[in-house]
Amino acid sequence: MLRIHFTGVDLARVRMAGRPDALWETILSFHRLRDRRDARLFGEWRTEARSRLNSETRLLGALIPGRGYFPDFLTPVEGQYGWDVGLDALRGIRPDRLRHELTLLGVGTAPSSPRIREFLDAGTQHLPRLMGELRGYHRAAVEPYWTHIQAQIEAERAARGRALLDGGADELLASLPPMLRWRAPVLECDYPVDRDVRLRGRGLLLQPSFFCRRTAVTLHDPELPPVLVYPAAAQLVSAPAGCEGGAGRPVEEQRQRTLGKLVGHTRSVVLRAIGDGATTSELARRAGVSLASASQHACVMREAGLVTTLRRGNAVLHTVTPLGAALLKGGAVAS
What we know:
This protein is α/β, with parallel strands linked by helices. The protein is built from 14 helices and 11 strands. The chain has helices spanning about 10, 20-35, 40-50, 60-65, 85-90, 95-105, 115-120, 125-140, 145-175, 250-265, 265-275, 280-285, 290-305, 320-330; strands at about 1-5, 15, 180-185, 185-190, 195-200, 205-210, 215-220, 225-230, 280, 305-310, 315-320. It has a 4-stranded mixed β-sheet with strand order 3-4-1-5, with helices on one face. The protein has a 4-stranded mixed β-sheet with strand order 2-6-8-7. A hairpin with an 8-residue loop joins strand 7 and strand 8. The longest helix is centred in the middle third of the chain and has 29 residues, at about 145-175. The two termini are about 35 Å apart. Residues about 240-250 have low confidence and may be disordered.
């Protein structure tokens, strides 16, 4: 069992990640690729990913065992800011940290594989090869589904955000998935080993993940910034057979076409272009329409309850309502 110990300061510093972490999703998806469980959720994704995967992954396979420890340097905290930022952090890893974490692979079990021993001997000279394998695997197995993954994490953030607004950090922690149990001041989690993590006033980053399943994951090194990666509620990665375009096409592509049929292609583009918020001029530029057209579309969608508009100085800011967000995601608004 994993036990995360909070102080009052830690509770005040609990925060939700702003987006899916591309490196965590990539590493955890590598587990799912080799796992035969959750066939309904990941079966088609495995078939599609393997069909695209024509690059080398043997070093990745050595660094990411089927179960147990994998090096913390594969998922740097900077990854929360984007794929490229995370890779830059990985590229800049200190040689002493690289060696230390590599030596932990196989400790207490079998000796390290020849590839790990080779990596230890070569040190940071092997990083370009590792990053090449990561990029190739990410392009094949994660990137084609990124829009779908983002939608799932955004829905998870909305649910946790409502809990935070209703009852603060205490309610947020209590609302997490069943494998996580909030027994103040300790968050307990089903875990492969018995471990205590003391936050010591550093707070905790909650990182929902699409490819994380069954149990949460945290970093091995207790001195690194605390993060808890936990399973987000997930939907099928690929469209079910019988939908337009056939099986094997990411769900988001189907939703974009359906949304276009419902509200019209231009208006669906405008609604998506609003994103996290946009002024009328920004909306016109993003959607590729005139200023007058952007204003008219925003007005119609505001009257339909899909958009809300607030004035800020000389500009107006348009944001998508929960109803509009549900329409974009192809779901329903929670009552």
